[in-house]
Protein: GTP cyclohydrolase 1
Amino acid sequence: MDRERIARAVREMLCAIGADPDSVELQETPRRVAESYGEFFAGMGVDPGSLLVDAAVPVNGDTGELVLMRDISLRSVCEHHLLPFRGRAHIAYQPGERVVGLSALPRVVAALAARPQVQERLGEQIAQVLEDGLSPRGVVVVLEAKHGCVADRGVRETDVEAVTIASRGALADPAARAEVLALIGPGVERQSK
Ligand SMILES: Nc1nc2c(ncn2[C@@H]2O[C@H](COP(=O)(O)OP(=O)(O)OP(=O)(O)O)[C@@H](O)[C@H]2O)c(=O)[nH]1
Ligand SMILES: [Zn+2]
Structure:
């Protein structure tokens, strides 16, 4: 990633809004924003499938029927406004032959989230990487997120959460999927109310 170029663009934006990028207060801001963008978009160029390649865990056939990782932190950036959206990802799969280390799943989420995204595509991409990498019998990916562009500008709905579902194979069946959704339960914020 070309951080110098990002910093130059941020300097230009500060000028465009009528601020002085050479002031004591703002002179480090282009560099800081460039560093932040380095984090936000660290998934650019990362092959998420490679994160599953060496992640197999030998279970000698004892895969269990369902693996669910609930409440994985989700941080991404919307491609429309370059504003953050964040929340939780829940990933369930019915194993075929392969089971991977649990920590591989948040890594796949993080790699795909660290790009300009829309929530629906992010969910579909996570589901597809699992489908391709694990050959599971079924996959469900549920994302729950609050979007900066919905909360802080535009309609300014500060509490709404977007929930999206992507599913594959046996878990695309509504009855099978309902069991997973029941295990995921209501959103954590609603649980605590
Ligand atoms: N489906 C979907 N929409 C998103 C996502 N992130 C942001 N948006 C929406 O993308 C839309 C962009 O709409 P545009 O009309 O092109 O841009 P805008 O005028 O800035 O949009 P408003 O937010 O409606 O003011 C808005 O409705 C956003 O709320 C996302 O992950 N998925
Ligand atoms: Zn947006």
Remarks:
- The longest helix spans residues 119-134.
- The first strand starts at residue 67 and ends at 78.
- Residues 66 and 94 are 5 Å apart (CA to CA).
